[in-house]
Design a protein that fits this description.
The protein contains 16 helices and 11 strands. It is α/β, with parallel strands linked by helices and about 400 residues long. The strands form 2 sheets. The chain has a 7-stranded parallel sheet, sandwiched between helices. Strands 9-8-10-11 form a 4-stranded mixed sheet, with helices on one face. About 50% of the residues are buried.
Length: about 400
């Protein structure tokens, strides 16, 4: 039995992971689970999966969960705060950690899992955006194995050679005959909206993704294509790629999840229905394949598949991310921090939709530390960028 620790258990990736575990109860057991503040959802997970430990990052939520667990006579030990989440990442009774914590909050738990030699199914792109080189250095020291869960990076992983799959973080794309990685994205809900109308976009409209069912923050990121920008940076670290070895392609139908182009003219693509259970199952079972609950494509009912170049006037966040990638770890850390703060302000109605990119750009203009490495340096850069962004948000509120 593979023993799973699920970080971000109550989010959309967490819910999909639980579906995969249900499909394969004879092979996987949930031994640890961590979440932010959703007590009701975590209580349901404990009743259904009986993990040995469960952590809530929010102290009040942990207290409420503890009362429920005690009153119902459940055996799960309840932990609290950031340290509780990190304990789930290092838990001795888990050999595999699914890191699906949203945002910068997932950095420390992901690093801890890497240091402890876990099999790490990584769905938190921010961990690599903020600490790519440090992360893979720690994974190598800890003898941790990393598998991507993002649908795009899972697709690229599946289209690469077995040697590249076994050397993530340091694989040699040139030796493998790779010409270019083609990173696909849907273009979000405003792909055809006149650019002038973006001034009036609401949070509810931005959250309504046309294909994927995701949380509010990542849905907004998809609409601005910042999500693709973060994935561009993530792909660089995962596949040891240069910036000019990755090309972003808009593919509205989200059937082709990404592609790898080879020097002999071949292009290998991974296709499938847009459901996160497929890449989760691939990460959990590699090199085997297991049931994921996702039906295979019906090619006779597919609509035409289309591909477009991204328009940076429509998607300035994508361009900002690609520029930050060239500047280095300090810039990508600042990019991520500023975007998190700006998106949160947009969702609360404090700033407009187009202000997101403007706030991020101003923070990047004020960021002068490029080549940072240590966790302390990364966290310091993160705090500074959030403070800069708060000033920009205040100007627009």
């Amino acid at each position: 039995m593979r023993r799973i620790s699920l970080l971000g258990a109550t989010g959309s990736i967490g819910s999909s992971t639980l579906k995969v575990l249900k499909e394969n109860r004879d092979e996987y057991v949930l031994t640890a689970a961590a979440a932010g503040s959703n007590v009701k959802a975590m209580a349901a997970i404990i009743r259904n999966f009986h993990p040995l430990i469960a952590a809530m990052a929010d102290e009040k939520a942990a207290h409420e969960l503890h009362k429920i667990v005690k009153s119902e006579g459940l055996d799960t030990e309840v932990l609290s705060g950031e340290e509780g989440v990190i304990e789930c990442a290092r838990f001795d009774d888990a050999d595999t950690v699914v890191c699906a914590v949203v945002g910068a909050a997932g950095l420390k738990p992901a690093l801890e899992a890497a240091r402890c030699g876990k099999i790490l199914a990584l769905a938190n792109k921010e961990a690599l955006v903020m600490s790519g080189k440090l992360f893979f250095d720690e994974a190598k020291k800890g003898r941790s194995v990393v598998y991507p869960v993002d649908s795009e990076h899972s697709a690229i992983f599946q289209a690469l050679s077995e040697k590249c799959q076994g050397t993530l973080g340091e694989c040699n794309l040139q030796e493998a005959g790779v010409d270019k990685i083609l990173l696909t994205g849907s273009g979000g809900p405003f792909r055809t909206l006149p650019i002038s109308d973006l001034d009036h976009v609401t949070a509810a409209e931005a959250i309504a993704h046309p294909v994927w069912n995701m949380g509010p923050k990542i849905s907004v990121d998809s609409s601005t294509m910042m999500n693709k920008g973060l994935e561009f940076i993530e792909a660089r670290y995962l596949f040891n790629a240069k910036d000019d070895e990755i090309e972003v392609v808009i593919h509205p139908q989200s059937v082709v999840h990404s592609m790898v182009s080879y020097i002999d003219g071949a292009v290998i693509a991974q296709l499938g229905n847009p459901d996160m259970c497929t890449p989760i199952a691939r990460a959990l079972a590699y090199p085997k394949r297991i049931k994921s609950s996702v039906k295979p494509l019906d090619f006779f009912s597919l609509k035409p598949l289309t591909f477009e170049k991204p328009d940076f006037k429509r998607y300035p966040c994508l361009k900002l991310a690609m520029q930050a990638s060239l500047r280095g770890q300090g810039a990508t850390t600042a990019l991520n921090a500023a975007n998190e703060e700006a998106v949160a302000a947009f969702l609360k109605g404090r700033i407009g939709y187009k202000d997101i990119a403007e706030c991020v750009e101003e923070v990047l203009n004020r960021t002068d530390v490029e080549n940072i490495y240590s966790l302390d340096e990364i966290l310091s850069a993160d705090v500074k960028a959030r403070a800069y962004c708060a000033e920009e948000i205040a100007k627009r509120s």
